[in-house]
Write a structure and sequence with these properties.
- With about 800 residues, the protein is mainly beta.
- It has two domains: about 30-110, Sandwich (Immunoglobulin-like); about 130-814, Beta Barrel (Maltoporin, Chain A), CATH 2.40.170.20.
- It has a 22-stranded antiparallel beta barrel. A five-stranded mixed beta sheet has the order 8-15-16-11-12. Strands 3-2-5-6 form a four-stranded antiparallel beta sheet, with no helix packed on it.
- The radius of gyration is 30 Å and the shape is globular.
């Protein structure tokens, strides 16, 4: 009997055969239109390190992509023949041709340029990123760019490089930190491989704490801040250290008149476990002895620091990275007077210490999706000591942050999205004073420590909607709690807060919430292309700052302290809108950007006149908060190619503060807007490098800024025969303007050398025409018979260097 397949069997056969037959009838053109994935990683050939922000361009479709922090990029393209152009500043461009018929993965190595001065520009990435991305007020600085600038005392410095950008200033020589768009130095979030840095300077501002040899790239935001960052209202400085070389040992360093440094990196287990160790130190006392001011010649100063990084790649999808950092400074000032302690000391030794550590685990699910967990601790511990036996004393204070951050990232040629949470804990020791000997007249005093917690959740996406429009949109929600143990003073209602007016004290137990704050922080930036070489951008962001530096000095000192938000001191809340026009010319050789901004800040602090903040328990009696506003226009013109490269920046801005107080004690605060402490209406910078040949390049750097606001006394009065200056209106006058010229030269003795050993010479002249730039004016009386007879109050101008400073540095690597 024959077997019959029957109707069910025929249907089964047709079910499988028809798709196969249809597939066989597909034309080659249809096959060609099937999309495939092309993914890759871009690395440097000399150090085998991923290049962040390298530009990958598809010639046929004009599509482009930027590599992420791991050097990764991705395209989805129809099958066919393509030419890819890969470029990165400081490296030879690469052109590859591929026939894409299936998903393809490529590892691409870029060759470094023969001379590291071959191309210099602010951005260490692709040459059209300024017009292609939606971020406003953002910049990336490569270590190559920073090293090409003439620097103070022969040291390449990231903070000095940032000060050449529009909207970024500092008080002057010997001043710590950055003032961004009129903000204070505590309004900048500084991260070094996830480690929070609270004090970014050595030698009271002459150097930064960032070793130039270990930096990979620097991202700086003063507007358009992504939602993954928070806690500071002015800017974000995110410094990423280079990953240790995984295939061979490399050494790099520099020997200079003022500072020297050394770095070693290499594999412990080839391609698996690698380590980087770097050290830097300085003892520039002989430079101080050449200064024209006799009071500065006796300064004794030094610093040292250590940086270490360990990278373990235990699979193709997982890696662990650990970073450690430690630095310590000592700065002895002779004949210093600590009026807050009513002590006239023969000298004061200031010390401060930075320490931190971080760990990060990266897991890659695939080429587009990754998960990251990072934990970090950062601490700053300043203090001072007095050696005089009768007044021997030791003062210490500190701030510490510990946090954990977890985030999920998706990256492709259309989206760069991140979703995450952060949990932070803060501990502040406002001050601890102890007698230095049994004979000291100093009484011990310890202020109560402050503890607080901050939690945040965020989402952020950079979305390329079309060839002409891209958007960065984000939302952050933060929650803050000021915790016990602690105490809160109560004051007489309707009276100004004063220590003598404390009526009661409320005590809180450990872990008890004293006060809480929270809020949403939206972020938005939009880019609209106006053509292949231009764009316009718009942005808005809100940032909440829960910690702030309590300081009524011009430049932050080791006696300044950090303060948690509490029932009296509210968190600062900043809202900023900005817009800009950006245009490139001559194949991106010239870049022009014009950007304007307007910022409102709630609860911006200022301080009552004449108060001392050192060892003050009730800081609410000294701090007044009000509304701040800042607005300005920033212009940046750059030339990025050729023998002559450089940039010109100009900023016109105004930063104002309004504090209302009904009390006569606060008559300097009239309830109207007045210039904030770091308001500088006009700031201009010019920086250029001329490459004469492969061996020699010259650089010039000129900066100008308006003077800083100060309050001059309107009159004076006498107390027990001593004339006291009387201040009326806040910040109505200004210090003299600031300007400075620097020159530099770099020499490569053998640019064609292909051997492992490479060396360079760097020569610089800082403050060429020896300008005595002041950064503060203050007033006091000389209370002797002659001055009392003259009824005279004398003005003092405080200038730091005031002379030309030459420097020579020998740099090497092998």
């Amino acid at each position: 009997m024959k077997k019959r397949c029957g109707l069910p069997g025929l249907c089964f056969l047709l079910f499988w055969m028809v798709p196969i037959l249809l597939r066989a009838q597909e034309t080659p053109s249809l096959l060609k239109n099937r999309e495939v994935n092309f993914r890759g990683v871009v690395k440097s050939k000399d150090e085998n390190l991923p290049l962040t922000g390298a530009n990958v361009l598809v010639r046929e479709t004009k599509e482009g992509a930027y590599t992420d922090i791991n050097g990764f990029f991705s395209f989805q393209l129809p099958q066919g023949d393509y030419t890819f152009i890969v470029s990165y500043i400081g490296y030879e461009s690469m052109k590859i041709q591929l026939n894409l018929i299936k998903d393809t993965v490529q590892l691409l190595y870029l060759e470094p340029l023969t001379n590291f001065l071959e191309e210099i520009q602010v951005s260490g990435e692709s040459q059209d990123r300024n017009i292609a991305t939606p971020n406003l007020g953002a910049a990336r600085l490569s270590s190559t760019t920073i090293k090409a600038l003439p620097s103070l005392l022969g040291e390449a410095d990231v903070l000095k490089g940032l000060q050449l950008l529009p909207g970024v200033t500092s008080v002057g020589e010997g001043a710590t930190g950055l003032n961004v768009r009129g903000g204070n130095i505590d309004q900048n979030l500084i991260l070094m491989d996830d480690i929070p840095v609270f004090y970014s300077s050595h030698l009271l501002g002459f150097f930064s704490v960032f070793n130039p040899d270990v930096m990979r790239d620097v991202t700086f935001y003063r507007g358009g801040i992504p939602a993954g960052y928070g806690g500071r209202t002015a800017s974000v400085l995110d410094i990423r250290l280079k990953d240790p070389a995984a295939d061979k040992w490399l050494y790099q360093g520099g020997v200079g008149l003022i500072s020297s440094r050394m770095m070693a990196e290499g594999p412990l287990v080839r391609e698996k476990l690698s380590v980087l160790i770097a050290a830097r130190g300085s003892a520039p006392n002989y430079i101080f002895k050449t200064l024209p001011d006799p009071s500065l010649r006796e300064i004794d100063a030094n610093f040292y620091e250590f940086t270490a990084k360990l990278r373990y790649r235990f699979s193709d999808y997982d890696q662990l990275v650990f970073t450690g950092f430690f630095s310590e400074d000592a700065f002895r000032i002779p004949g210093d007077s600590l009026t807050a302690l009513e002590v006239n000391a023969s000298s004061t030794l200031f010390k401060w210490r930075n320490l931190g550590a971080s760990g990060r685990w990266n897991h890659f699910f695939n080429d587009e999706l990754s998960f990251q967990v990072a934990g970090a601790i950062g601490a700053y511990q300043p203090g001072f000591s007095i050696p005089d036996e009768a007044y021997a004393a030791e003062f210490t204070s500190g701030v510490e942050q510990r946090y954990v951050k977890a985030s999920l990232k998706q990256f492709n040629n259309k989206h760069s999205a991140e979703l995450g949470v952060i949990l932070s804990g803060y501990r502040i020791q406002p001050g601890d004073l102890q007698p230095g000997s049994g004979l000291s007249a100093i009484n011990a005093m310890t202020l109560s420590p402050e503890r607080s917690t901050e939690a945040a959740a965020f989402v952020n996406d950079e979305w390329t909607i079309s060839d002409n429009i891209s958007v960065m949109a984000g939302l952050r929600y933060s929650w803050y709690s000021y915790n016990g143990p602690g105490r809160v003073f109560q004051y007489e209602p309707g009276e100004p807060r004063d220590v003598s007016g404390i009526t009661d004290t409320v005590f809180y137990n450990k872990g008890e919430r004293i006060s809480t704050y929270s809020g949403f922080e939206p972020r938005l930036a939009v880019k609209i292309s106006t053509g292949p070489s231009g764009s316009i951008k718009f942005g808005y962001n809100r940032v909440i700052q829960y910690l702030q530096l309590v300081s009524n000095t011009t430049s932050a000192l080791p006696t300044d302290r950090w303060k948690s938000s509490d029932p009296y001191t509210k968190p600062q809340v900043a809202d900023q809108v900005s817009a800009g026009i950006f245009r490139n010319f001559k194949n991106n050789e010239y870049e022009v950007g014009l950007e304007g901004y307007y910022k409102l800040v709630q609860n911006m602090p200022d301080y009552r006149s004449g108060v001392s903040l050192l060892l003050l328990e009730a800081t609410e009696t000294a701090i007044l908060q009000g509304d701040g506003r800042a607005y300005g226009v920033e212009l940046l013109v750059r030339k990025t190619k050729g023998r002559f490269t450089g940039w010109l920046s100009y900023t016109w801005s105004s930063t104002q503060l309004r504090i209302e107080s009904p009390y006569d004690e606060d008559r300097t605060f009239s309830g109207t807007y007045y210039p904030a402490n770091f308001d500088r209406p006009h700031v201009g910078n010019f920086s250029a490098t001329y490459r004469q040949n492969r061996r020699i390049s010259f650089s010039v750097n000129f900066t100008f800024s308006s003077g800083r606001p100060v309050t001059f006394p309107e009159s004076k009065y006498t107390v027990d025969g001593v004339f006291i200056p009387n201040y009326i209106n806040r910040n109505e006058d200004r210090t003299p303007s600031y300007h400075r010229l620097d020159l530099g030269m770099k020499i490569d003795p053998d640019p064609r050398n292909t051997k492992r050993w490479k060396s360079y010479w760097s020569f610089s002249l800082y403050n060429v025409y020896a300008r005595r730039n002041p950064y503060s004016l203050f007033f006091r009386t000389k209370n002797n018979t002659a001055y009392r007879a003259l009824n005279k109050v004398e003005a003092y101008r405080l200038a730091t260097i005031g002379t030309i400073v030459p420097a020579i540095t020998y740099e090497f690597k092998f």
